[in-house]
């Protein structure tokens, strides 16, 4: 394993970006599956199919991105975790009647 290929910043950045895309696909697919649960005819089949697809594609993506280099695998995992935090932030339930502006106003300094 040539050391310069595994440790180059562009390869690590690309691996992190790939992890971000993998995470976006994983968590986006999970959110989409859960949102459609009540509107499909066979929700258990949809959940199983979504789970199988996610459990096949995500490890395959990590395997291909890592390419035998633990540094790239770690960068990919970091990107995946960033995608997880973004997904949690975007899908967090808000209290009724509390839009984005109301949440910001609640944290404003009081005169």
TrEMBL record:
Keyword vocabulary terms for this entry: Membrane, Transmembrane, Transmembrane helix
Annotated TM spans: 12-32, 44-64, 70-88
Q: Does the keyword Coiled coil apply?
A: no
Keyword Transmembrane listed? The answer is yes
Report the InterPro entries cross-referenced here.
AtpR-like
- Give start-end ranges for the coiled-coil region(s): none
Spell out the protein name for this chain: ATP synthase subunit I
Taxonomic source organism: Ideonella azotifigens
């Amino acid at each position: 394993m040539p050391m310069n290929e595994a440790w180059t910043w562009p390869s690590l950045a690309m691996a992190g970006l790939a992890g971000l895309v993998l995470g976006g696909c994983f968590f986006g697919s999970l959110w989409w599956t859960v949102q459609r649960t009540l509107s499909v005819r066979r929700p258990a089949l949809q959940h199983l199919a979504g789970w199988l697809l996610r459990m096949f594609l995500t490890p395959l993506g990590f395997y291909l991105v890592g390419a035998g280099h633990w540094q790239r695998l770690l960068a990919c995992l970091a990107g995946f975790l960033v995608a997880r935090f973004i997904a949690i932030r975007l899908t967090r339930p808000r209290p009724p009647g509390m839009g984005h502006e109301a949440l910001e106003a609640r944290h404003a300094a009081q005169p």
